[in-house]
Amino acid sequence: MKRGRGRETVLLLVCILLLLLATIPPLINLGRFQHRIAGAISRSIGRPVSMDAISLRLLPWPAFSLDNLVVAEDPAFGAEPSLRAPSVLVEPRLASLWRGRFELSRVELADASVNLVRLDNGRWNISSVLLQASQIANAPTAQAHSSAAPRFPFIEATGTRINFKQGSEKRPYSLLNANFSMWLAEPTAWQIKLEAQPVRTDLDLSLADTGLLEVSGEVHRASAFGRMPLELSAEWSHAPLGQLSRLLLGRDAGWRGDIDATAKFQGEIDHLIVRSHLLISNLHQQDFTPVQPFTVDATCQGSHNSDIAVDGWTCRWPLGEGALLLTHQAAEQAADDATPTAPTAQTAAAGTQPGRGALTLSAQHVPASFLAQALGLLLPNAPRAQRFSGAVDGSFQYALLAHQLTGMMAVPALSIAEAAPGGAPLVIRDVALRAAPTQAPSLLVSAAPVSLGVAAQPLSLSAELSRDGFAVHANGAATLPALQAATAAMHLAALPQLLPVPGVREPAPVATVGLSATAPWLATDTDGAVPSAPAGTTGTLHLQNVLYAPAWLPAATQLSSVDALFLPGTVRWTIGPAVLGPSSAAIHFSGSVEVPLRCDPSSVCPAQFQLNTPAVDVAMLASDLNPSNQPLFAELLQRVDAARIRLPAVSGSIHAATLGLGRLPVRDASLVLSTVAPATGLRHPEATGSEEQQAETGQLPGGPRVTISSLDGQTVGGHLHLDGSLDWHGNTPHYTVRARLTGADARGVAALWHENWGPGTLSGNAEFTTTGTQAADLTSHMDGQFQASWVQGASRAEGQLRRLARFPCRSRISAAGTQQASLVTTASSSTGGCFRTALPLRAASAGTGRCGFRWRRATRQRGRNRSPSPGPWQRPKRHHPPGPSARCRTPSDTTPERARRFTG
User: Between 890 and 406, whose confidence is greater?
Assistant: First the structure.
């Protein structure tokens, strides 16, 4: 019973306490506390403080809630308040209230906005606040017992925005989501801690891409702001280099990487010693990634004072057994160390203006491979750094005010692995980098002449390096193997398909070089614009007694003389006497080829060619180019498919005085053709099933295409015009041929097949399609039509000569799903007769690429039997041309079979 009454008593007391907590705070007059709190804060920072309202909070701990706290600015720094806080929570020390003193235990600011202002004379608005606080005697924040001096409160701000101003102008830099805390750790030292995300207000930057800035340390009391000792540590981590460049420069500089930077500040505010460490990992341009990862790992140390921003800076970057040193000297010291020169107005001013002086970059036994690795950051096809060996020593000095570069670096012996024939290293001696005596800073690179197999005419190398790009010059002579090895090792425009002609010594197979190559370092200028001077190579290259042996061609081409003229964007090859194929069916030709050096990957940029040859026999050339005794296209297809080689994209013309197309000789032939190479291989990488199934499912890519725009020439007394195309789909070539023959001599045409026809003029045209590489495939897939007309001619039938005023003929070529094609011909003559023939076309022998057919002729004339053919120019007595109802068919009583065999 007593236990139940005790519980009721406790419950009653709790209810009374809650009632008091709910009713007493509104009854308390907080006006005097509002003024006392505002006065306490104002005296602590030395600035006027105001607030809109104050309220008392008893739970979970007694505190005062301030609304819209505003801290006024020093008039010398502007009229905008230095701090605005919509909500501030102030916790008093309860024990001090019993003793009649008002001490703050904790001050919490939420979503505050702070302005940090710097004047042109170097003063900060926060300096007066810290100086005012340092002059007030306070006990440490964590002190447990009270003393004569009030204890400094723990100040905390969350979700704060810190803005930066230069005088009255607001800068675009800010710190968002800042969490700041400050307390008095010792009687003379404040401890501070800051975490924030840097942003730029005039750009759209993601906070996740600007990294995290952390600052911590302590600030000591002093009689003057500039003499306040401090020890601070700062770290900026997880900051992408691209976003950092946008943050600091206002634009994307085009570089990528991950930055982690730390810094330590120690000393008085006006005279600080700064030690920093910079780590940039995976440094590269946005357009490409170098083969070898590039990392910057440097430590720096220097001083900072109120008069000179930085002074005595030294940055060290260890590299192998050596290091790179970047130092900054004050103007007076730099003037004392510099080489005596005539004084100028600029150099005189450098000694009086603070923050100027000179930067010195020193190389102390730096590996030469580092230079190649750094070159890989600027050029996508730079040589591999592992190939280079040697040591770089020297220094360059750059005057900041005069913008003048002086000094030099040298490599006594630069060795490039596998840059000589047989995999031997190529040694270039006395390589020197000198500052050019020009207004714009640039470097001149020189070296001792290099012998590349031609001792009498060594190769001289030089280069010019500027802020925007570079230029390389090469002059001299080299043997072809030495030139190929050097260019391949340097990842330059190598000549891998050229070989020396075996057994030829006079003249020697050498290359005479006179080239200059220029290119920008970056894809864009520093202002983001496209560079005005694009990359290009100019000069000449002369080759003699070399073989051109591309992998897609069965036989090599012997070139006795080749001259290359390099122009911006293109190279024009002039081919002297050249020979293609073996001596039994060699093609002698000459001409020119113009090749584009740069092409948009999304477009086709064919090489333009123009060739001239006295004679070409296609049948003999195709036979001699095929040691495997198979059709030429099949040989080419196997070569391309086996090595996944892309046929070159070309467009141009070939002129032949005599062109042999089987038994058909063509004089003054002019051929215009072009090729298009696919962007992918001949087969889909995941293609399955037959070619028909692949075509239906879209797995079969478009293959190379050869288009014959025109082939024109004179043959058998007439004019021949031919055009067509050759397409590869999968592994099967598809042909489309259109031919037209006009004004040909009938007896000349008959002589091609050893026939004895009469005179007259033959004209005709044909169009057909077929597929395959073997003769059997070609005939079994043939489909097309043929039309011919024989005017004022004569034929021999049954041993008699018959005159034909006009003899039209129509033919249809069709395989109809069989293993051989049939030539079905319907014709009529001026004598009133008509006939129909069916010619089965079949392969004469497999693998030869020649087709043969047998001709079975059956004729039935309309009307009564005719007498022998009339005279040469006499009309027949009666003429009955076949009417619409007449049919040409093969009767049962045909004439005996006459068989002839045609090959071609």
Answer: 406
Read off φ and ψ for residue 680, nearest 5 degrees: -120, 180
Of 744, 747, 726, the C-alpha closest to 735 is 726
Least confident of 219-233, 293-307, 352-366, 567-581: 352-366
Span 800-818, average pLDDT: 58
What residue spans of 588-659 are helical by DSSP H? 618-624, 632-643
Please report, as a single letter, which amino acid is at residue 74: D
C-alpha–C-alpha distance, residues 355 and 357, integer Å: 7
Please return the burial class of 105, using the count of CB atoms within 10 Å of its CB with bins 0-12, 13-18 and 19+. Answer: middle
- Rg of the chain's alpha carbons, rounded to an integer? 47
Distance CA 416, CA 473 (A): 18
- Separation of alpha carbons 772 and 377, rounded Å: 49
Give how far Cα 578 sits from Cα of 211, 575, 651, 769, Å: 64, 7, 20, 34
pTM: 0.67
CA 192 – CA 183 distance, rounded (Å)? 7
Around Cβ 452, how many Cβ atoms within 10 Å?
26
Smallest Cα–Cα separation from 235: which of 273, 266, 268, 275? 275
Nearest to 585, CA basis, from 628, 620, 630: 620
CB 317 within 8 A of CB 323: yes
* Per-residue pLDDT, 387: 84
Tokens matching residue 708: 């014959």
Least confident segment among 233-237, 520-524, 583-587, 853-857: 853-857
Q: How far is CA 649 from CA 536, 569, 886, in A?
A: 21, 17, 54
Helices of type H across 745-818? 746-752, 775-780
Say if CB 545 and CB 560 are below 8 A apart: yes
Please give the DSSP secondary-structure letter assigned to residue 450: B
- The pair of three-digit structure tokens given for residue 296, joined into one six-digit string: 């910057």
Buried b (16+ CB within 10 A) or exposed e, 308-342: beebbbebbbebeebebbebbbbbeebbeebeeee
Local structure of 36: helix, strand or coil: helix
Report residue 356's pLDDT band, with 50, 70 and 90 as the boundaries: low
Tokens of 621: 């050339």
Nearest one of 299, 300, 260, 250 to 282, comparing CA atoms? 260
Q: For 645-704, how does the pLDDT look when each residue is reduced to its tens digit (9 = 90+)?
A: 566 788 999 999 999 887 889 999 999 999 876 644 333 333 344 444 443 333 334 567
Distance of CA 33 to the CA centre of its chain: 69
Would you call 247 helix, strand, or coil by DSSP?
helix
3-state secondary structure of 402: coil
- Measured between its terminal Cα atoms, the distance across the chain in Å is 130
Which among 863, 854, 857, 859 has a CA at the least distance from the CA of 901? 854
β-bridge partners, 613: 656
Query: What does each C-alpha distance from 416 to 31, 109, 479 come to in angstroms?
Result: 85, 64, 18
Tokens matching residue 687: 């293609």
Contact present, 73 and 66 (Cβ < 8 Å): no
- The whole-angstrom separation of Cα 446 and Cα 150 is 74
Distance CA 610, CA 672 (A): 9
CA distance 730 to 520: 42
Q: What is the CB-side half-sphere exposure of residue 550 using CA atoms within 13 A? A: 11
User: Of the candidates 704, 734, 735, 737, which has an alpha carbon nearest to the alpha carbon of residue 723?
Assistant: 737
- Please name which of 529, 530, 528 lies closest in space to residue 252, comparing C-alpha atoms: 528
Tokens standing for residue 747? 């007896």
**Strand spans (E) along 241-357:** 255-268, 271-285, 296-305, 311-319, 322-329
Q: How many CA atoms lie within 13 A of 694 on its CB side?
A: 18
What is the distance between the alpha carbons of residues 460 and 280, in angstroms, rounded to a whole number?
A: 37
